[in-house]
Amino acid sequence: MKDIKTFVKTIPDFPKPGIQFRDVTTIAENPEGMRIAIDGIVDMLKNLDFDLVVGSESRGFLFGAPVAYAMDKGFVMVRKKGKLPRETICEDYCLEYGTATLEMHKDAIKTGQKVVIVDDLIATGGTTEAIIKMVERLGGEVVRVCFVIELAGLNGREKLKGYDVMSLAVYEGK
Ligand code: AMP
Predict the structure, then answer these.
(1) pTM higher than 0.90 for the full model?
(2) How far apart are CA 174 and CA 165, in angstroms?
(3) Which positions are catalytic?
(4) Which domains does the chain have, with CATH numbers?
(5) Reduced to 3 states, what is the DSSP secondary structure of residue 123?
(6) pLDDT digits over 11-60, tens only?
(7) Which of 9, 53, 95, 129 has the most CB atoms around it within 10 Å of its CB?
(8) Pairwise CA distance, residues 1 & 160, whole Å
């Protein structure tokens, strides 16, 4: 089977100088790429007892929803502020410049439910940290966190210490 990295395009200096942008749109555009990504994450979860997959807008939806479907689990959407129609909880998180806010429906997770978080990529880990806080405030237990890509040089794992973190492809550096 091909390495998922085969399907990732690296764009230098996007969106600003010095950033190596790891573009996952080229995974989605290629059926073989998508199959390798989804099957790879499903494989990471095959012996794990869990109830729900949680993914965040928008690249987390791309990988999280197919994994949930394949494993017959529910999928919970984490969205940017102001998009969800019912009662929400929110969490601020840091971006490179300033902060942003993520939200999820208050009734999306019940106390004691076991949750897996799926996302496209871990950079600083700030986004995932905010999602974990919301899941735990609702009484959920984060039993694994899965990424397609990990940028090891940004030490996102440090922020997620104590959680079970797995990734399909690791890029050294930022
Ligand atoms: P972070 O909160 O720093 O872990 O970053 C979270 C999100 O930002 C990821 O899920 C990506 O969608 C996006 N992102 C951050 N850095 C990059 C990068 N170098 N290439 C592509 N996407 C990135």
Answers:
(1) yes
(2) 18
(3) 59, 96
(4) 49-171 (3.40.50.2020)
(5) coil
(6) 999 999 999 999 999 999 999 999 999 999 999 999 999 999 999 999 99
(7) 53
(8) 30
